[in-house]
Specification:
elongated, Fumarate_lyase_CS, 20 helices, purine biosynthesis, Adenylosuccinate lyase, Fumarase C, Chain B, domain 1, 4 strands, mainly alpha, Fumarase C, Chain A, domain 2, 3 domains, two-stranded antiparallel sheet, Ribonucleotide Reductase Protein R1, domain 1, Pur_lyase
Amino acid sequence: MEAYETYQTPLSSRYASKEMAHLFSPAHRFKTWRELWLNLAIAEKQLGLPIPDEALEQMKSNLDLTPEQFDIAAKEEKKRRHDVMAHVHTFGQVAPAAAGIIHLGATSCYVTDNADLIFIRTGLTFLLKSLAVVISRLSAFAAQYRALPTLGFTHYQPAQLTTVGKRATLWIQELLWDLRNIKRARNDIGFRGVKGTTGTQASFLTLFDGDHDKVEELDKLVTELSGFDYAYPVTSQTYSRKIDIDVLAPLASLGATAHKIATDLRLLANLKEVEEPFESTQIGSSAMAYKRNPMRSERVCSLSRHLMVLHQNALMTSSVQWFERTLDDSANRRITLPEAFLTADIVLSTLQNVCEGLVVYPKVIARRIAQELPFMATENIIMCIVKKGGDRQEAHEKIRVLSHEAAHQVKNLGLENDLIARVRNDPYFSPIHEELEQLLEPQTFIGRAPEQVDKFLKEWVQPALDDEELKVAVAVGGKVELSV
């Protein structure tokens, strides 16, 4: 397999953001390898190895690969059957003064694993910024509809009222946890560093004539030159594949959150209460012209399931790494890691597009409330009768009978809920007839939902988004336009 094909990013990169797609592109990967070789040479020269300045200058001047160099690398790999050595030789052709010292003392995982850690850390930063924008957009939606009553559902059966905004805070809270988890994973990423073929640093100890202090200093210098605060204290030939587990776990969890949000929106679309954006010329079905399929939310669900499953690959790969390493991790990780980040990126951009264009239909929501609220108001009716001097048990039996009669109208005859009309026509309830309208006011059934929204946005969301790197991302984040 040719070198550039070995690291081809998945088809999903076509739909990812430019920065995420570039991060996992062959061009960026191999440039990063060259930067790592340069850092190693700089540190080795600083610690006394006889590396000429010309070698470093030629390496610095040729970090980007040309199309011709990709062709050379492809031919080299076909001949050598080794991707890293193919690129060592390719780099040496454009930096001839450095040809003899490129990769000096290193093993292949010096570039492959350290590069992966760089990509992972950068990718997590990209996702944090995208996630912050989604949270911001959804928070604006929650604030706008903080007090709009809507029918709550438990077991997907009508339950007590909530508000459209309060329901959105349930989604936002899970996204905040995802923000926390991804940030923890990002901040915990270390560097493999300079560890040698089995992690013992034996080759570097030989290079520095048995000077342990210089070997430790080399590891520290390369780690700092590569932009990391620390290197993992011990490694095998690779960094522990458990790191991949720790990275993909919060991405899988994000997938679960996104799937939950998108599923709720798909259900609401069926109820015609809330819909995702639908373009004026968009076609929902090739046969049924009236349809407004929630295809964006369906896309989120589809990709989120893929994102959740990828975590299993990391678990299995980590569990079967024999002793200091085995190569059956390689092909798997070259697919799994880019796929996870590219998929998470697409999920977030699609979710942002959905949140920026949500359409709420208050009259449909009010109609559904009117259909169910009479049943929910029965307890209030009973309490009101008791306050007027009535008997609680007698009132309960009266309202029970009327409720079943109204339910028969709805379920068996397909008519509207006429429970309140039946209460009005029953002389037993005459003491509270004038109070029935007030007892059926939806705002009296939403509890502290509006206040909960306000407090949640102020005390939890705003502090999370006040993080400097996220604040900038939210400020400059533009609207996402998607091809349907």
